[in-house]
Amino acid sequence: MSDSVDQVQKKLTQLISQSTSPREALRSSELKSLYAELPKLPVNERSAYGQKINNLKQKLETAVNEREESLAQSDREPIDVTAPFDINAPSPDLLPTGQGTTHPLNTELANVIDIFTRMGFAAVESRQIDDDYHMFTSLNFPENHPARDGYDTFRTSEGLVPPAHTSTMQNRILKAGKKDLENGGQIAAISYGRVFRNEDLDATHEHTFYQVEGIFVSSDANLAQMMGTLRSFFEVYYGQKLKTKTQPAYFPFVEPGLEFAIEKPAALGGKPGEWLEMLGCGMIHPNVLREAGIDSAKYRGFAWGGGVERLVMLKYGIEDLRHFESGKLAFLRKFA
Ligand code: PHE
Question: Which residue owns the Cα nearest ligand 1 atom 9?
């Protein structure tokens, strides 16, 4: 009888050490038949036998637990703490797997830049921190002139200026193009980028938005060329013929100063006679040319500047400007 217990122990111990489901050994028929022997034994032998199979069961349980533990260990990657660590190695479980998309403003800005560069304009990004000189002085805003108040301009504690319009780039573009002009060429450039105003927020006002500015200077630049350039741009951007008009407006850096409007196209929900102001524009003021070292008796130029959001809102029928900076995925996915 004791032989049989030893045999079962040997067999099951071996089974446990090799099985991937070792706990089954504790329910095996071999173990059950050992228990089944108990009532058949003479009464005086039962106690010793019972203890023997209980011991066996305990040993087997320990073996099962150890086996299970070692199976769990072998599932894990061993960690080599001495291995060199590549900080650029991809860690797929930490990175989002879904593909991102381009923000609609970036897509449309690229589109706008593309149209102007195909017309022959160079493109430069505007600065997001600038100074008082480029924001006002270089643009013919006299010191303490009330027109300076019209821009709700933020200032940093150091006295720097988050620009309130892309016109801050005019003086730089003019200075950089002076040589080309004197060599018989022209200045043709756009600048684009973020601008900032201390606005009360509503559906058509944001503290942060995008503008595109254009500058053209030559010996005979004129308003007809400007109107043609702007009309061409809007017709390409909206993919259709448009009615355009201007009305007088005041900006210290242009003379005359104008607002450029298009008739809201029927295809975009417009009624005849419904005009939309799209940007400010005009002939560059002689003081602005002079400030950049350009001879205003020999050269003249036109400039314009306007918001990108307004263009995009009309194109897609977007009603609230605040969607753009909101980070709302439902909005962004419409442009994915
Ligand atoms: N900078 C002006 C604005 O943001 C627009 C403008 C640009 C007007 C260039 C005239 C010429 O209000």
Answer: 304
